[in-house]
Amino acid sequence: MVQKKFYVVWKGVKPGIYSSWDDCKAQVLGFDNALYKSFTTREEAEKAFCGNPWKSLNSQQGKKVISATAIQSAVTSTANVTTKILPDSIAVDAACSGNPGLMEYRGVFVADGAEIFHLGPMEDGTNNIGEFLAIVHALALLKKKNSNIPIYSDSVNAMKWIANKKCKTKLEQTLANKPIFELIERAENWLQNNSYSNPILKWETKLWGENPADFGRK
Hints:
The protein is α/β, with parallel strands linked by helices. Helix content is 39%, strand content 22%. It has helices spanning 21-28, 42-50, 53-58, 68-81, 127-144, 156-164, 178-193, 205-208; strands at 6-11, 16-18, 35-39, 90-98, 101-109, 115-125, 151-153, 200-202.
């Protein structure tokens, strides 16, 4: 029996997760520097799609399904990704005065820095929670607009929480931060009940400087 595979397309006609090679091929055939890879389980594919594609492409997990020519192209693109920012994208960031403390988050267009959403400040939150909520806010907004542009975040923890569809905060709920926990519940429900094709990419602060959505309070 042939083992079923799941195909992640990070860069192609329509990025996403596909359950057949024919569907995947339709997204990458003839697409310059297409980035894609097969995985043996849906869970692995979802984590890879929500994470950094370059780590998956360079790992032994899954099986690459690209030709020799395309492999070289992907390697070249992988080498360049950390030095090239995709301007047609959204960057999100959070700020928190104290831990816990007053928390807020926002999202901006990378191309021009224009703010597209901003929530808070809210009492007794944490920076990681704000980062998590900001990514989900961006995903929901882009889905309404039928847009699959990438989302940048500089929070590894928040990106892991998104991949697991669970905000794994250790913060205890209080009367003051109840509104934040209500937002967390809504965000987790959204992740459980919606799919998305937006790559969630790590903002490389050491190479590019501060995240465009940074609140400038460091």
